[in-house]
Design brief:
By secondary structure, the chain is an alpha+beta fold. The protein is built from 11 helices and 5 strands. The chain is 57% helix and 9% strand. The N and C termini lie far apart (62 Å).
Amino acid sequence: MYRIIKVLNNNGILVYHNETGRELILMGNGIGFGKKPTQQIESVPGAKVYSLVTRRKQQSVLKVVNGIHPSFIEASGRIIEEAEKVFKEVNHEILLPMADHIALAAKRAKENRQIPNPFTPDIRVLFSKEYAVAMRGRDIIKEMTGYAISDDEVGFLTLHIHAGLSDEQVSVALDTTRIINEGIRMIEHEFRQKFSEDSLAYTRLMSHLYYMVARARNGESTNVDFNDFIFSNYPETGRVAEKVCTYMSETLKMPVGKEEIGFLAIHIQRVISPETL
């Protein structure tokens, strides 16, 4: 049994779940029509149920919901539905943080100003499926709110979708992307090459760097050790890989295992000279 706290619009209501004591948002066609606050309702067949989190733990959900126009919350819900078509399961707790971001992105679009996201190309490579959903999300936002968000905002939206698939917060994913971006720039600088972002080897290098950061943060290591092979056959690549690993360790303030050097060097070598491996 639910008690209605607030009717968002015809398609959404904020409710209190009597059995669990949790505040939830229920969304579905016509679910809010004719409903009133304090009204008790049974479960609604076919309704999407969204558990809620706020940016600050002590922040009232009702206060947050009151600060976001219902159209942005509904757009966020529809984007989650799009993500579920691809990923099956998405954590519904991203609803309000993503709606809040959409509201801010729409405000920036209205005022014709942008927050630059220099990592959008990296985000597109690292989280390609999430990015594709975010691109569909841009169409949903335009359809429901009338605002066209920028490519950089699509990059940020991608990180919200990624957060719904993992335990990684948006801020952490953005920081990881920044570290990877700097690692790639270091490699390009050392070898005086500009890598093709469309190549499979580049995608694999980006993915490898991402999981390197994840392993360092989790205190894990890889069991694969190519160090002797690399320094015997490709010493310059090994030197650059070691430099990147040192940078990562210093930036994360966490140790990066020595065996990561050779493993990373394999991926670097495949990008700079694919015919050698």
